[in-house]
Design a protein that fits this description.
Length: 284
C-alpha cells in the first residue's frame, strides 16, 4: 500500500513537470509569434508610408508633366503666332508663312524661281489668291475708269466727273453704279483694306465749306467712304479716307484735259497680310 502511494505521488509529480514544460514551450512560441506579428505590422506600416510617398511623388510628377505639356502647347501657339521681320523687311507670323507655303505650291514655277526674298514670295502668294477671288474686269468700262494691279496692290482710278459735280464733294447720282461695283469687289475678299484717295487739280478753291484743295480732296474721299459703308455694306474697319490735294498729278495742269485727268478718286485695295493668310482657304 505504501509502495502504491509513493508510485502515485511520483506519477503526479512527473505529469506536472511535463505539463509545465509544454506550457513554457507554448509561452515561448506565443512570444515569438507575437514578436513576429509586431515586426510584420511595423513593416506593413513602413511599406504603407513608403507607398504613400511614392504615390505623392507620382502625382507631383504627373502634375509637372501636365504643366510642361500645357507650356509646350502654349509655347507652340506663341511661336506659331509670333511676328517676325525678315532681312528684306517683310513682316509675317509662322502661321502666315505656313499658309503662304501652301499657296506657293500652286504658283507658276517660273515665277516662283524669280522670288529671291520672303517679301517676293508673299507678293506671289497674295497676287495668286487675289486674282482668283477678285474680279475687276467689270470696272474697265471706259477711259474714265482705270484699273492697275501692281504686285499685291489693286489701284482703281475714277474720274471725278463719274462721282462729283465740279468743285463739290457731294456724290452725284452717276456715282451709284460704279460704287456698287466697287463695293462688290471690296466685299468679295474679307482680308483686304481699302484706301480712298481724293486728288484735285492745281486750281485753288476757297468757299464757305471748303478751305482749299487739301480740304476738298479729303472731303471727297470721306464722301466715298461713307457711301460705301452706309449704302453698300462695306465694313468701316476696312476703309481709310485720305486726301492728296493737287500734289500727285498724273499730268500737267496747263490744259483743260490735263486738269480733268488730275481730278480723280483713287481706290487702293491693300491686302492685310496676316489677316489674308489667316482667312485664306486652300483652293485647287
Amino acid at each position: 500500500m505504501r509502495f502504491f502511494s509513493v508510485a502515485l505521488v511520483s506519477l503526479l509529480v512527473l505529469s506536472s513537470c511535463v505539463s509545465k514544460k509544454k506550457y513554457l514551450a507554448l509561452e515561448q512560441e506565443k512570444g515569438e509569434l507575437t514578436s513576429e506579428l509586431t515586426k510584420t505590422r511595423v513593416e506593413k506600416e513602413d511599406l504603407e508610408h513608403k507607398f504613400a510617398v511614392i504615390e505623392a511623388r507620382v502625382d507631383q510628377y504627373n502634375s509637372k508633366i501636365n504643366s510642361l505639356t500645357d507650356n509646350v502647347e502654349g509655347l507652340k501657339l506663341e511661336n506659331d503666332t509670333k511676328i517676325g521681320v525678315s532681312a528684306d523687311g517683310a513682316v509675317a507670323s509662322n502661321i502666315t508663312k505656313q499658309k503662304m507655303r501652301e499657296t506657293l505650291t500652286k504658283v507658276n514655277p517660273e515665277a516662283l524661281n524669280n522670288a529671291k526674298t520672303l517679301k517676293d514670295s508673299m507678293n506671289l502668294a497674295v497676287d495668286y489668291h487675289l486674282n482668283r477671288t477678285i474680279d475687276t474686269s467689270t470696272l474697265n468700262e471706259d477711259e474714265d475708269i482705270s484699273v492697275d494691279i501692281n504686285e499685291t496692290v489693286v489701284m482703281i482710278s475714277i474720274s471725278d466727273k463719274m462721282l462729283f459735280n465740279s468743285g463739290s464733294y457731294r456724290l452725284s447720282s452717276k456715282a451709284n453704279n460704279i460704287l456698287q461695283k466697287l463695293a462688290d469687289v471690296i466685299n468679295s475678299e474679307p482680308s483686304i483694306d481699302v484706301m480712298v484717295e481724293g486728288h484735285t487739280d492745281s486750281r485753288s478753291i476757297n468757299t464757305e465749306r471748303v478751305a482749299d484743295n487739301w480740304d476738298l480732296s479729303v472731303l471727297r474721299a470721306t464722301s466715298v467712304v461713307r457711301k460705301l459703308q452706309d449704302s453698300y455694306g462695306v465694313a468701316p474697319e476696312k476703309l481709310i479716307a485720305s486726301g492728296r490735294s493737287s500734289y500727285q498729278p498724273l499730268t500737267d495742269n496747263d490744259t483743260r484735259d490735263g486738269r480733268s485727268k488730275n481730278r480723280r478718286t483713287r481706290i487702293i485695295i491693300l491686302p492685310n497680310i496676316n489677316k489674308f493668310f489667316a482667312l485664306m482657304v486652300s483652293t485647287d
